[in-house]
Please model this.
Amino acid sequence: MSNKEVKAALKSAREAIRNKEYKEALKHCKAVLKQEKTNYNAWVFIGLAAAELEQPDQAKGAYKKAIELEPNQLLAWQGLANLYEKSSQTDVKGDLADVYQKLLELYESGDKQKWCDVCNKLVELYHQEKRHLEAAEAWQKLIQMKQQEGVEKAELHQLWKKMIQLLKDSTQNQDNKTEQLLVTAFEHAVNSTDTVPGEDHQNLYKDFIQCLSKFPHETARLEKACNDMMALYPTVSYPLEVLCLHFIQSGTLSEEALDCFSKLLEMDASSGPGIIGFGIKCLQEKKYEEAVKSLTEGLQKTSQCPAAWRYLAEAQMKIHKHRDAVLSCSQALEALGTPEGPNLRWKNLILQLKAEALIKIADADAAEEAIKALEQIVDASSDPVILAVRGQAYLNKGLMDQASKISQELLLSHPDLAESHALEGFIHYSQKNYEQAERSFLNAIERKAETAEYHQYLGLTYWFMSDETKKDKGKALTQFLKAAKLDSYLGSVFCYLGNYYRDVAGDKSRARGCYKKAFELDETDEESGTAAVDLSVELGDMDTALTILNEVTEKASPGTVKWAWLHRGLYYLRTGQPSQAVADLQAALRADPKDSNCWESLGEAYLSRGSYSAALKSFTKASELNPELVYSVYKAAAVEQLLGKYENAIATYQQILKKTEDYVPALKGNMSEC
Model:
């Protein structure tokens, strides 16, 4: 076949394809290939015809043969793209992307519109395949092409917004390159808006700031974006809120941060981040109760802020609300999720604080939980302070050998660390080795004199060491006073100051003040509450005694604070108010139904009120719980006598006299019945 015949055959093939006579076209092409196996057009036409005859494998092979022959010719690449686009097979998507890439290369120096059309298709393909970075990179090339052509600002703005949409879908698994592309797209988008200020622009800026807040290493850009938005929209609180949360989460409490907190509260007094920021400021200024109040209020509005929960726990620790601090630490860890990078530091700090709070609770279960918390801290074994905390947890759990081992290791490796000596002191103190404990706590104080707990335990060591050290003003009292001065929220030290002034100095008034202070700081401290009430009664100050009892009982839930109900019930009984006495003594028995003395007092209250049957039941119950309560047995007999149950009364009197022959009230009762 001559060249002229080849051209004629190719022309016939083209005509056949135009007329949809695909089999005929194949015949012409095959005739050409018999003569000329490397004819590019023949292979392209075979690809076209085979595709239309739904023979995709043959079509693909033909196009690839053509490409092999002429890799920089468009026709075969276009045909292959069409073939892949129509294919329902998912495995051709990767091949199609490669074809689009080649077409872009071929169109780049020529037809710009077709280049843009193919680029759009490539981006859509990458987007479907969730290849977000590649989609964004391709779209960025499209934007660059449009910029070279001098595209209008409005169209360019829409292109950048489209790039944002492409990348926002991949926010969960972004690498640094993807993040940078997204940030770049946002920066161009906010700067290419026609209407500024405006609602669309404002919303775009919010999205930009929200995006930056997710990237820990973009703090400078975040601060700039927030400040820029505040300048454009001075009445909108959102950028200020994000900036405040950024400062809170980063642990930055600079003048700039404090100024942001103040500005936000001026703009919106109910703003969660603003209230949290004010709480942190209070914590910094050692206004701990105010800090707890503000942080709690702020977290009710903005709960997903791990750093704020941690600050709240820290403030709660300062006022010795240890159980509350444990709960706050748990909330912080929950809000933190699975931390990475800078957040890992927060996790370690929170876990350590949680362990310290659990140790202050001082029971075996809390100690076990503290050990579990410490085990989650990364590189905990290399931190001597955390090791000392672990030693205290073992001590609280009763694992003396493990605690002692840590203590010995710390004293060898970190002899200048106060916590090393304090742990040794706690161990000696728990074993009543007071002389060794004294030496350890003195060593701890020498290295860290501002720790109230060390002074408190040195005071306790002197208190239990001997009568001489207990009474020596320069020993126990001095240490308790130092501890109280260093930590005015340490309720237990005020209780021991009360013990000193009551039992050693004989100063009831000062003792009562210390007990009252201890109880105000810790309303679960029964010993201090009871002592404050008893001393108030001894000093003839019933108003103070009743004020304390009323405050406690008003807040109490059923079945609690027995001591307060009992004290107030006895007061009402003594002052001729039997109905009130009955109510309070019943409340006391709900807390402890097996208290025989309380049942006896309830019997007296019923008797005073004239409720004889109820009085009889109460005295009987008291004597059943404690048969040695002769008075209750006698009163039961006396009530039976009042009720006319003479035989029962006589039998009870005689029963008493068998046990106690000279019990005069029973003798009188027995004689009167006779």
In short: Residues 134 and 140 are 10 Å apart (CA to CA). The longest helix spans residues 342-361.
